[in-house]
Specification:
Radius of gyration: 19 Å
Helix content: 40-55%
Distance between the termini: 40 Å
Number of strands: 10
Strand order of the largest sheet: 3-2-1-4-5-10-7
Number of helices: 9
Number of domains: 1
CATH superfamily: Vaccinia Virus protein VP39
Shape: globular
CATH topology: Rossmann fold
Largest sheet: 7 strands, mixed
CATH class: Alpha Beta
Strand content: 15-25%
Structural class: alpha/beta
Order of helices and strands: HHEHEHEEHEEHHEEHHEE
Length: 272
Amino acid sequence: MAAERTYFLGTHDEELERLGLQHEVWRPTVLECWRRAGIGPGSKVLDVGAGPGFAATDLAEIVGPSGFVVAVERSARFVEAGREMLASHGLENVQFHELDLMNDALPAGGMDASWCRWVACFVSSPPLLLDKIAATLRPGGVAIFHEYIQYDSLRITTAGPRMREFVRQVEQGWREAGGEPNIAPAVVRLLQERGFSIRDAIPRVFCVRPGDAMWRWPATFIDIHLRHQLEQGRIEASWAASVRAEFAAAEQQAATLLITPMVLEIVAEKRR
C-alpha cells in the first residue's frame, strides 16, 4: 500500500467522490475538447493517469465498439473502481492496466489520441512521461493535456489572507512531493521538442459564485486537502480552522466571486 499513500490527496472513498465531482463539473469542457481534437467513433485512445475511470468511461462510450481505450493508472484502489464502473456501464472496449508511469512501459501503440489531465504536474519526470506518450501515438495522432499554468491565480474576492496562505501551502507541498503545479509551459516545450505541433493552447478559467456547480470543485478540494494535511501533521489545527472560517464566511456573501486556477488546454499533433 506504500504507493497508494503517495497520492497527493490519497485514494480513500472521499477522494474518489471528489474526483467524480471534478470530472462532472469539467465534463462539458472536456467533451468539447475531445471533439475538437478529433476523438470519435472508432478512435483508439490512451487515458494516462486514469484514476477511477470517469474519463475512460466517457471515452469508451464516444469511441464505441469499433474503437477502444487503454487506461493506465498506478493505484490498485482506483483501477478496481474503474473496472467496476466500466462493468456497470456494460463497456467492454477498455483495457485497464495497473502500472507506474515512471517505471513501467505503456501497453499501447499506434494510438490516435492520448488524454492526460493533472498528471504531468505530479510525476517526478515530465520529460520521461512525454517520451512514453509520444511513443504510443501514430504520426498524426494527438496528445491532449489539461495542466495548470498558474495555480496561484485562484482568487476568492471576499476572502482575506488565509486563503492566499492556503494556496501557497498547497504549492509548497506539491513541490516537496516532487511535482510542479505550473507545469503547462514545460509540457508545451517538451511536446515541441518531441516533434509535435501545438494545434490548440487555450486557457481555461471559470468565475463562479457560491451555489454554482463549479463552486463545489475548489470547495471539496480545500476541505479534503486540509484534512489530509492535518492527518500528516503538516499544518496546525488552528491555522486549518482559520482557513475554513474564512472560506465559510466568503461562501455566505452574495458578492463573492471565485476565480478558478488557470488551466492550459493543450492539443498537440505528432508530426513524425
